Amino acid sequence: MIIRITKLTKKNRIFKRIISLTPLFAGNLALAILKIFHYRRTLTTHLANKDGSIGFVPTMGALHSGHIELVKASIKKCDTTVVSIFVNPKQFNNPVDLLKYPKTREEDLKKLFAAGADIVFLPLVEEVYSSENIPETHITPLNLVFEGEKRPGHFKGVTDVLYLLFEIVQPNHVFFGLKDLQQCLVVERLIAQHFPDIWQHNAATARESSGLAMSSRNTRLSQHGKNTASCIYKELVKLNNPDLNFTADAALSIANLLALGIQTEYLNLVDLPNLVKNDSINIKLKQAIVYAGFLEGVRLIDNLLI
């Protein structure tokens, strides 16, 4: 562990020196120092020569503070931290959403270098999907409710790409954010069925000071939209009360959000881990309030663990 701290301290000193230079030169130098791989074979070969544990943070880029906290958690836990940036077309059931997904690769790489990540995997689509040998992952009923229902084929795309990425990286630990609660539950099924030696770590939802759940899609909102979207979390907090009639009060929350211009797709109390709908909060059960809605043409999701 002392070696890891020394390494990070040295890297941080280097980064402080780099950012004191001109922005363009600093950016180019940071990218030169960070180990970046585009091909699965070269990454696999490089990792095979590494000693110690490997932590993996799969992302689709447009990184925010929540992603960086996952990277830091991996650095703290593991000897080598790998981050992938790959916008997976198979998990977009809406072609327009795929087209509009924010891409900020150079800024992402600078953030990862500053955070202390060791390796970034930046593959092309054909490189990731060069293997068609992807076994089925059984996730029913999660593929039939909420995100599974509203985005048909989405979780098939998630399990397929993660299966391939896990095969490439061979991580000991993987790190996800609970903002995508249903996805975390799907990944648990994937790991249980195909990668029993991987440890999954789910971090609490990262939020802005306003309460808005951090998301790459937030970059598509206006500042007014971001301020308005923060009311979603405020409504979820109000609903976290065992004395309320959840169904009636959820309807009131939906009306409150609609008055602000937020169109709700779903707002439900569910029992975990299968996301079965419930009408009342029961402190003896593992439950969550799950939400999805639209504002300024952007689809937003959030949840609150009870």
Mean pLDDT score = 91
Strand content: 15-25%
Residue share in helices?
Answer: 40-55%
| Shape verdict | globular
Q: Number of DSSP helices?
A: 12
- Count of strand segments: 10
Radius of gyration, taken over Cα atoms and rounded to an integer in Å: 20 Å
Query: What is the topology, as strand order, of the major beta sheet?
Result: 1-4-3-2-5-6
Provide a descriptive summary of the structure in words.
The protein is an alpha/beta fold and 306 residues long. Helix content is 45%, strand content 19%. The strands form 2 sheets. It has a 6-stranded parallel β-sheet with strand order 1-4-3-2-5-6, with helices on both faces. β5, α10 and β6 (199-203) form a beta-alpha-beta unit. The longest helix has 18 residues, at 2-19. The chain starts with a helix and ends with a strand. The model is unreliable at 1-10 and 13-27 (pLDDT under 50).
Question: What layout of secondary structure does this protein have?
Answer:
Layout: H1 2-19, H2 23-33, E1 35-37, H3 40-48, E2 54-59, H4 65-77, E3 80-85, H5 95-100, H6 105-115, E4 119-121, H7 125-128, H8 147-150, H9 154-169, E5 173-177, H10 181-194, E6 199-203, H11 223-239, H12 246-259, E7 263-271, E8 276-278, E9 287-295, E10 298-305
Parallel strand pairs: 1-4, 2-3, 2-5, 3-4, 5-6
Antiparallel strand pairs: 7-8, 7-9, 9-10
Helix pairs in contact: 2-6, 9-10, 11-12
